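Replying to the earlier thread about multi-chain prediction with a worked example.

Input:
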Amino acid sequence: MALIVQKYGGTSVGSIERIKAVAERVARARDRGDQLVVVVSAMAGETNRLLDLAGRLSDTPHPREADALVATGEQVSAALMAIRLQALGYPALSLLGYQLRITTDSRHGAAKIKAIDRDRISQALEDGRIVVVAGFQGVNPAGDITTLGRGASDLTAVALAAVLNAAACEIYTDVDGVYTADPNICPRARRLERISYDEMLEMAGLGAKVLQLRSVELARRFNVPLVVKSSFSEDTRGTWVGQEDRAMENVLVSGVTLDQNQSKITLTGVEDRPGLAARIFGPIAESGIVVDMIIQNAGADGRADLTFTVPRADLRRALELVRAVAGEIGAAGVRHEDQVAKVSIVGVGMRTHAGVAATMFKVLAAEGINIEMIATSEIKVSVVVNAKYGELAMRALHDAFLGENPALNEG
Amino acid sequence: MALIVQKYGGTSVGSIERIKAVAERVARARDRGDQLVVVVSAMAGETNRLLDLAGRLSDTPHPREADALVATGEQVSAALMAIRLQALGYPALSLLGYQLRITTDSRHGAAKIKAIDRDRISQALEDGRIVVVAGFQGVNPAGDITTLGRGASDLTAVALAAVLNAAACEIYTDVDGVYTADPNICPRARRLERISYDEMLEMAGLGAKVLQLRSVELARRFNVPLVVKSSFSEDTRGTWVGQEDRAMENVLVSGVTLDQNQSKITLTGVEDRPGLAARIFGPIAESGIVVDMIIQNAGADGRADLTFTVPRADLRRALELVRAVAGEIGAAGVRHEDQVAKVSIVGVGMRTHAGVAATMFKVLAAEGINIEMIATSEIKVSVVVNAKYGELAMRALHDAFLGENPALNEG
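Result:
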């Protein structure tokens, strides 16, 4: 008898019919003899509906009240799921964040879990209950309801799996696993059987939206095996996310990602002396803008061009800050490109195999795509290209590393 | 500076526009210097929407889960009201049943309040907050959410007013007070300035739906002054509900009520011996049917006719039970009338003034209305008439006791 945590996202419980289907799935797992904790999100659209109500009453709803408001979405889902499981004859029990004593800090809307009291949930499991947990919510030391941030029902599930030492944390969503690339862009993308935490983190951070970043970090820290599956399909395979193993190292590239919401700023003729980078990036960081890639090309004249990327939504604010500094530090000028794409390949095999980046550049060159920036990490190579070539670059790289002919992808 | 508890019902907070209007009203009260506790119901229709979802998942939703489900309705209203008050610049704070430690028994759906911890709410008031409370909900000793029954946001408000020793508990609804009769039936019905707890209890029990019965009982027990007002009108008068005083005794009749949902059962030829009433009414009580009026006419032959009323919705079940018993006890027969109306006059003046009942019978006789049953209490006279005469009887009695010519109504 294994203890399994299952998490069902908003589309998976998005209607009465979907709740019924999920309850059947939970019931079958119970019939197989597993102990079950079922974490549910709000019904699809509900969180936005509630936030819209708040938005019609206040331009800046107080975060404490907004949390009390939106937490009802998961409370409704949890109660309905328990009601359905009971109607099927299963001993279900819903529990909310404060009832589970999921204690968090007081940063409403993005609270961090500090502790989970495992007694309440363990007792319910020992009593033979299927425990249905309202995801996304906790309680601060003052007893106020907090929420953990968008997509954070994943986090609730992983945290409970860690505390309970569960055999697995199954994340049910509307896709049947993690793909080698976005199937909407790469028709030949295929589901991965296995992927390491590190690769998943790079892919999540690079814009693959299957799993929430913080939940993967937490799973890695506590070594919680994650399985991503579809709640809409009877296919039970999904993608397994766990610790790196030897087999994984034999695969150079696990996935290709594309981020089309980037823009690029270049400061030309910057004097090459200490402290200038801090002058430039300090104000940007203070204003909460995330700078992704930074590249500096030192020229022969002791002056350099400094190029970096920011999310397109932040471009205007970033430009204002940069232009203000540019004059002070005597830069020659400020250029920007508002539409660039970042294409990345990710794979733990890169740790032990050289030449992956070179192959990547060759593939892009063969397509006539100019590389504007390059950044590498241990298990990732990212390039910035003109936005109009983003999808082409992704498809070309996918075909080369992950297509029909696997020659390029075995170390 | 007075401490006031205000309660707003479902129609009063039924839309974003209504919530804005109520927040303005609360803000004005605050500007007058009052300390305020604001109890809110779920937005009109929300409780039914949630129960409908549950009903599509289970024929008999588990009461614990149903309570966790419907309690979200008041949670949403409370958060939205706090958000709006804050947007207007007022220091509001929403609190839920478990946060206020409104401890109840575990009878889900109809829980009884056992205790309220006044520290949390007093602290918030001392901090200068307008405390917005989610009505209708509590928490049992195990930490499960309970609800107090339909209409029980009134009860939350009265209980808080009692614990806090509030100067008044204002119940805001969609009518501007308690009326001498239902204005839909009696065009000349008028708002009462004052009414005693006892009269209000009789009127609430007799079908006047302005206040929930249990909340009036609680208000009487703790001597909480109630004021019923409209949240839709700028008229600030309303109806005051409090302890009986000398002025009230000078009014014979405060109100006329009509209950059109009654039916009548008669057992004929019942032997007049001890124990038979228990044989007849025992099974009916056990099946949860509320018997209202009972009348027995002993005949000269030692046999009697026994007549009683039950809610029309329960008539069929009651008839089955009565017919089963009728044979066993040797009754001559069972008759029933499925449409009767109960018309009542209520007034504390009856305690000290004789002849009110006689006047009532005279008024009905003048209209040619036959009285089928009569029941009296200290402050009430009820008669059962053929349903088709119900509204006519009500109007005739209202005109006689409460109309333009007040002669009949002064002791």
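Chain A touches chain B at residues 16, 19-20, 50, 53-54, 56-62, 64-66, 68-69, 71-72, 75-76, 78-80, 82-84, 86-87, 92-94, 96, 98-99, 143-145 (CB under 8 Å).

Feel free to reuse this layout for your own posts.
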